[in-house]
Structure formats: structure tokens, C-alpha cells
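Data availability (excerpt). The following record was deposited with the supplementary files.
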Amino acid sequence: MPAPPRRTDGVWVILPTYNEAENLEQIVGAILDALPTPRRVLIVDDNSPDGTGELADRLAADQSVSVLHRERKEGLGPAYLAGFRIALEAGAERIFEMDADFSHDPAYLPRLLEATESADLAIGSRYVRGGGVTEWGAMRRFISRGGSAYARLALGVPIRDLTGGFKCFRRIVLESIELDTIEARGYAFQVETTYRAIKAGFRVVEVPIVFKDRADGTSKMSKTIVAEAIWRVPAMRFRRR
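Predicted structure:
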């Protein structure tokens, strides 16, 4: 693994990638344009066969971009955890997570950042007033909204978009929620990090966003990811007890 980038405060965006060569250059540019300096994009690539890693290395000629190459695809959760650790070690004060396919619009980054002036974790939410989803079919909408409702009821928390993956953390949250004990790999990872933040007493807010389906590439959603969420979510509540 390459040495961590020089220590810096400011804002970091963790951007996991697997076969995102069609989107990567545009999404990185949009992120850098949206955020104030100092800011850094950390691309975490799981050995994409489509050349995403090589493209990421070229983009890292910009001092605001770094790359972490991982040997194989292990899932969303492990990729984020690896990125969080590097960002924390480098001194990041605000740490974003987001998708690389433009389903999370970089234009919302300043709103989430502003929300963490008074909150500890800001979630880009599809399911609060002003939020929504475009270009999804009925089944995808049912799975997403139903998954968030299931997690909310199982865990007894008020957050409406528990499966959302567009977030801004204050560093103290990630330092406090025992990252080394998180094992979830798919969307259950999103539920667990938010749930742990709530149970640790941090203030969590939802900022409305409109989620857009990816324009290029293919979705990473799978039956395995859904199945993991079904059994892991209730298990989280018992573990925290």
C-alpha cells in the first residue's frame, strides 16, 4: 500500500470504485469544483478490470487527488473503512462518502458540509420532504424504501433514509464508532454506521437530495447485498445491547 498523503485538515471525499472508468474523471472534477479548499478526493479502487485504477493514477497528478489500490473486490463496506482510516490518519476534519456514478450529485456536497456545522453526521436523504428518486422502476423503489423502513423499525431510530450512502461525518464520529468491528460489506454498512453514530449520542440530520440512477456503467446491487441487510440489521441492535 502506498504511503499516506501528507497530513492535511479540511474535507476528504472517499470514493470507492469498481469499473467506473466511464464516470471517474467527470465525478472527481465535479467534486473538486463543489468543495472549498483544502479538500481531497481519495479514490479507493478494488482492482477494476476496466482500467479505473490506471485512470485514477493519472488523475492523482492533481495534488488534491489520492488513490488507494486494493487487490480485489471485497464490497462497499471494506472499501469505505480503508478510506476512512487513511483520511483520519491524515487529519481530515470532515469526511464524505459517496458513489462514483453521479447518482449522488456533487452539487449537494456544500449543503451536507454546512449541515455538519451544527450536526455530527449529515445524511443525503431521499425520503424526507424535498428529497426523492428519479429514473427508478417500481421494484427498485420498493426495495430501497422498504429496506429503509425495515431498518428503521428493526432498530427503533427515526432516520428515514438509513440505507443512504451519501454522508458527511465529523471526524469524532468515525473515531468513536469502533470501525474495526464493522463487518458489513453492502448496504448494511450504511445502516450500521448511522445506527452506531446515533447510539453513541451524536446528532444526525437528514438533508434532502434527489437521487439519480447512474447514467453509465452497471449497478452493484445484488441479491447477496439485500440478503446481508435482512439478517445483519436486527443483529446490530442485539450487539449494541
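Summary of structural features: Residues 11-240 form a domain with the Spore Coat Polysaccharide Biosynthesis Protein SpsA; Chain A fold (CATH 3.90.550.10).
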